[in-house]
Amino acid sequence: MNILLISFLACLVVALPSESAQKVKWCVKSQHELKKCQHLATKSTELECHLKSSVTECMTSIKTGEADAITVDGEHVYQAGLINYDLRPIIAENKTERRCHAVAVVKRDTDFSINDLKGKTSCHSCYQSPGGWTIPIGRLVAQNKIPWEGTDDMPLEKAVSQFFLSSCIPGISKALYPNLCQACQGDCSCSHSEKYSGDEGALQCLKSGHGQVAFMCYDAIPQSERQDYQLLCMDGSRKSVEEYKDCCLLKEPHHAVISRKDADSEQIYKVLKQIPASDLFSSAAFGGKDLMFSDSITELIELPKSMDSFLYLREDYYEAMRALRDGNPPAPPQDGKIEWCTISHAEQQKCDSLQIPHMECRRASSVEECIKKIMRKEADALTVDGGQVYIAGMCGLVPVMVEQSVQQKCNDGGEASSYYVVAVVRKGSGVTWNTLKGRKSCHTGLNRNAGWKVPDSAICGQTPDCTLYNFFSKGCAPGADPKSNMCELCKGSGKAVGDESKCKASSEEIYYGYDGAFRCLAEKTGEVAFIKHTIVGDYTDGKGPGWAKDLKSEDFELICPGLPDTTVKHTEFVRCNLAKVPAHAVITREDARKDVVNVLKQAQASPDKLFKSEGERNLLFSDSTKCLQETTLTLKEFLTQEYIDMIEKTYKTDQGKPDLVKACTMEICIC
């Protein structure tokens, strides 16, 4: 009897919900916000309120797990992304009301540019406001137009006071920086006690001649007066007020909810969506304005999981916020050095051992992380396949060199290399194109060319609701959701259960890449492998690594849509393939193109070393590469419209756009 009672009580304890695990702990900064938060908690029992004294205190409490989330402006999104907090934006406000397009306004009859501001007099809407301070001053410092080497040199306000002859910056300390209040007509506060406070005040300051340039939000310039003014553009030109989108300093980003990178963002979003918008976006009843969220917004938008502070703010805004904290950016190196991004221990080892002049090696966890590092100028280049070239291109990167696998084309400068994507099966397995559904599959990696994009297009095409996830019973597609059936067959490092390398998109996963997908098939883990046409020949008949030493090329065959009921020899790839696609390419930023090409051209003096991998295959470059050829083609020209159409078609039937593409293409805060 006692045993039954104990068992019952144990089951009861397990069945009880863990409230602390389900609660979303919201951080508030004032009694007014606390009052509103407590009201919202009556609408969703999963919301819990935590009071702190400031945004920075809230960020600290979120980092430690004491709280989970808070809504912040763009400047704090930047701060939250720094290493001492390591938070990321997870939800954005969708604001219908105006966001500030920060502009530099001058009278039409003047003739100076933004490069001539030193010694001029300035009017600002308000100290620490987006249009009057953070955006214009941040951009001017980031572009080296206002000299300032950081707080160790002097306070930023002092650097501004030395740059402008006199100013009206309402809200700044009049006692510390008197000339920054010299042009004001009141007490230099951000209030009605200062005639030149706010956007309208800054324009009045310019209009009355107390300043020669006004930093403010564009839409505060009355329609009837716009012909009297022009805007100063960052490129040194001037434009009419109506051309503000081509000449604004920056656009204020949407406010965003920030949390830890490992937080359950879906749960936070779900809890907020349970609360009626009329409660969530209204503050009047609680004695304040814009409490927890902006009162003017209509909805919240869940952000992609790849989103971080840099991707959210975009480069120009991010750099402006960095400049407000750290000063003028360091001068770009003149020695032509580049940093190559590696995605595994084996790649890092090879990169270090090459000892290429002017090239250093920087480690990242995946191709996606490398793309992010290149965007942030924390790395400069790596080699990726066509599907990843497309993703990188959507994030502003460009292909600059292409792998060429035909020596003759290296010698005579022939057309860029390409390859066939093939579906390989074991001979006698009974697998044909018509019997493929429900089989076990091996893929080079999620969103990669041969392993994912091409087979997805060939198998699902325009079929509604068809995805490789539901077409195959299970598979290994490194980079997929670890909980999905497309990670079931992955092996990780092969060392232990619970291996963190399992399904990771790097060579730490045994079944990653061309050789990994083929190994998945060869070891009879999967029944079909989607790979490059040369792989069977490269890894059989004694030519492969240790695990492949007993493989015979004659034991593998090809299947394809054109021959749905049969198989053909692996050498008949021209007749039986899924598509012909662009070769792998080196990607970089446009500003690093010259250095990357120069370093790689010099490195090709030892091609045997550059294109050879020890221990593993295809490290840094495909082992079949004979040379790298420079390309100046645009992304569209390089990939071809046909191939781009194929990629984008798969987004409609697959799991939608890759997460990083979503993060890179969201409209946030550009002009």
TrEMBL record:
Residues 1-15 form the signal peptide. PROSITE patterns: TRANSFERRIN_LIKE_1 (PS00205), TRANSFERRIN_LIKE_2 (PS00206), TRANSFERRIN_LIKE_4 (PS51408). It is found in: Secreted. Keywords: Disulfide bond, Ion transport, Iron, Iron transport, Metal-binding, Repeat, Secreted, Signal, Transport. Fe(3+) 1 binds at D73, H255, D385, Y419, H584. Disulfide bonds join C27-C58, C37-C49, C123-C205, C168-C184, C181-C188, C233-C247, C341-C370, C351-C361, C395-C664, C442-C520, C476-C490, C487-C503, C560-C576. Residues 24-326, 338-648 form the Transferrin-like domain. Hydrogencarbonate binds at G132, T444, R448, A450, G451. GO terms for biological process: antibacterial humoral response; iron ion transport. The keyword Lipoprotein does not apply. InterPro entries: Transferrin, Transferrin-like_dom, Transferrin_Fe_BS. Fe(3+) 2 binds at Y514. SUPFAM superfamilies: Periplasmic binding protein-like II. One of its GO terms (molecular function) is metal ion binding. Coiled coil: none annotated. One of its GO terms (cellular component) is plasma membrane. Transferrins are iron binding transport proteins which bind Fe(3+) ion in association with the binding of an anion, usually bicarbonate. Belongs to the transferrin family. Monomer. This is Serotransferrin. It comes from Carassius cuvieri.
